[in-house]
């Protein structure tokens, strides 16, 4: 159960003064539904009202706070005119202007003959100074009521800055002091404030400098969040290791046979990864290992060789891909290997229906099928394995954690290998896969030709199309990728559809189109045609990012390359250069390029190393954007910014490791405080794994 001390933070925002259901709905959109969400919504700006000039010195356009004498009210003569109030100090006059004003309110707020502190923007009205709707009007005896610095928060339409600011301020007032969960020596070393002081400080900026991600308060809070993340992952990992798996040690006869059948030798990186996987499988604990490597780096082969160990021990293995077409490609890669090795391979997808499906399921249940490749269909209810010992999940981040879990329940705690072709910077990998060990295929199989990458302004599109024509005359194939932009028409048209229509005029039925809004089977059909060489040019949106494998494709054209992220461009480029033919990638851009876009395209020209590109991507864009909103499985941080606080992550990792070693059930005094930390960042899932008490 969540410690009671946290209850005020987890109350609904409607518990705050001045927040009714309507405002609450807006706040939920801008920040979240609970008070803690407001506390963790940090200011993005600060309004500085500390300038206190005399009227004559107040500069036009500046924000000023002035002490003035209210001289007289000048009510409007018609409803369309504004209400004016003339104020002054010893240096001059200023006109306050109010539209749609209520006279009684203004009489009370600005009594004639009294002094007032006013704050707002000084405007130029034909050379005279005026201020329209001052932000603040207070009695000078009550000067403290006028904030000299006001934080600015992210908003949503309908939510005014004032309402949001008050809501956050009330939320912060409610934040309790919490027992310290950080190591005292570490806090001391970093000069960090306590949690509550840090929270108050980040919400009370008095300069732009205070908004920096490097302030002591902000660093402290970022570290808190990272520590919660790492501690949760390690607790989950520990719980899994404790619930032991099985030890799979195969003499390696099958593998030797497969290696002999392969027309190539394993790269050093492949052999290394395989050794790590073998050790995991042999250990009695359950394996969960991440295998990272660029498209074409040879992950599938590694996975296959690992599966053979399970099969040699009399068990079964499964490989799950995110799409039908990817599952079929795996089948294509694996089938010849399986045949030469003498193991039985089957595919199961949503397309299997009726009697054929029943037969496949029966073979699986009897153990006759040794390797099953497929899509989500693999973990549906009626799919029963005889003895599933090893599961390979491809393109992990397209699956949710829950799907991963569902598949692993198909066997008695099967070992799991998670493969991803999206190289993830080390820091991000830690936050998302911190519960797994990781292997990386950092070198490409020998003989691959580099992909010649060029950036070309879209004005030279014609030359590019000529190049495409030359390539397809040689029997090669071309990908042509357009970004997803909706036309302004009533019926939305993708840029890809427009380009398709144009290319069609020149190249006829050699051109195919796939985009995200097409029904799945239709999409698959076009991709298969491309794969089989029936069409030469595939116009596409990014649905091909993890798509078909067409070794014959030698040109990748990416339109509006400046709109894509680095990682995405790299993924797309990985679709070509898969054979011994020379390949090229054309990045068409529309100038003028911004600084970041230019840097991005430059990096692509310089390197094909996915890991390097991923690190650069993180540096250029920040963590949230690197992964994209659509990709599940990655935590979103509220307080930490991995591009800036990445350094803190390894410290948090070490810290969490020590905690789990010394106080695995979080029972010491610090352990208790750390439980509260986990709840504070909604890692209830991890706390539930602790032995209660
Ligand atoms: P990934 O799954 O990482 O995209 P694959 O395992 O599908 O990569 O391998 C891509 C291609 O490279 C396949 O055609 C495969 O046969 C080939 N390949 C894999 N490993 C090697 C190697 N060590 N040497 C040469 N070719 C290899
Ligand atoms: Mg693959």
Write a concise keyword list for the protein shown above:
693 residues, alpha/beta, OB fold (Dihydrolipoamide Acetyltransferase, E2P), Rossmann fold, seven-stranded mixed beta sheet, 25 helices, globular, binds adenosine-5'-diphosphate, binds magnesium ion
Can you walk me through this structure?
With 693 residues, the chain is α/β, with parallel strands linked by helices. It has four domains: 4-47 and 153-212, no CATH class; 52-139, OB fold (Dihydrolipoamide Acetyltransferase, E2P); 253-441, Rossmann fold (3-Layer(aba) Sandwich); 451-607, Rossmann fold (3-Layer(aba) Sandwich). The chain has 25 helices and 22 strands. The strands form four sheets. A seven-stranded mixed beta sheet has the order 6-7-4-3-2-5-8. It has a seven-stranded parallel beta sheet with strand order 12-13-11-14-15-10-16, sandwiched between helices. Strand 3 (83-89) and strand 4 (92-98) form a beta hairpin. Helix 7 (195-202) packs across helix 8. The longest helix has 27 residues, at 216-242. The protein is globular. Mean pLDDT is 88; it is low at 487-492 and 624-633. The structure holds adenosine-5'-diphosphate and magnesium ion. Residues 299-300 line the site of magnesium ion. Adenosine-5'-diphosphate (ADP) binds next to helix 11.
